[in-house]
Design brief:
The longest helix has 29 residues, at about 85-110. This protein has a domain at about 5-70: Arc Repressor Mutant, subunit A (Orthogonal Bundle), CATH 1.10.10. It has a three-stranded antiparallel sheet. With about 160 residues, the chain is mainly alpha-helical. The protein has seven helices and three strands; from the N terminus they run H-E-H-H-E-E-H-H-H-H. Helix content is about 50%, strand content about 10%.
Length: about 160
């Protein structure tokens, strides 16, 4: 399982604390100790719980003084992950995420209105319909639709 650097740091800290069994972890203290924001500490511990690495029980009513945390994964003496391979794998994952983010941003930019005020999505969807400049400041919606060849649709909406 591959964890990000901050998740790995939290997991190692919790693994050390839970070496001998169930412990009570005060989340603000955990956040301060590891240099995290409190919300980030909650998010990461929830993720570690979902991954099955730790069991986490909330402190209902605040009587215990923190969340109860215990290990769920069995520790073994197998070889540790090679740091160079870990960095290379993490670099590939970040590169893939960056590439996907750039593709999504490019697609959204193509769908957003252009600088001239015409909607790029509407222009592409209307295809060969006659195009005109952007509507003037005082024009109405119906006039703009008629300029794009949709006058019959506007006329069918009028009350009779």
């Amino acid at each position: 399982m591959l964890l990000g650097p901050t998740q790995d740091r939290v997991a190692r800290h919790l693994a050390e604390r839970t070496r001998y069994g169930r412990v009570v972890v005060h989340m603000p203290t955990l956040a301060t100790t590891l240099g995290l924001e409190r919300s980030e500490a909650y998010r990461i511990t929830a993720r570690l719980r979902v991954l099955g690495l730790f069991g986490i029980e909330d402190d209902q009513g605040g009587t215990v003084g923190g969340r109860r945390v215990w290990r769920t994964a069995i520790a073994h003496d197998g070889p540790r992950l090679d740091p160079a391979r870990h960095r290379e794998t993490w670099r590939r994952i970040l590169g893939w995420a960056r590439h996907r983010s750039e593709r999504v941003a490019a697609r959204l930019a193509a769908l957003r209105p252009t600088t001239s005020g015409e909607a790029g999505l509407v222009r592409r969807s209307l295809g060969s319909l006659p195009a005109s400049g952007p509507p003037g400041a005082g024009s109405e919606f119906g006039d703009a639709m008629r300029r794009h060849g949709l006058g019959s649709l506007i006329d069918s909406w009028r009350p009779r």
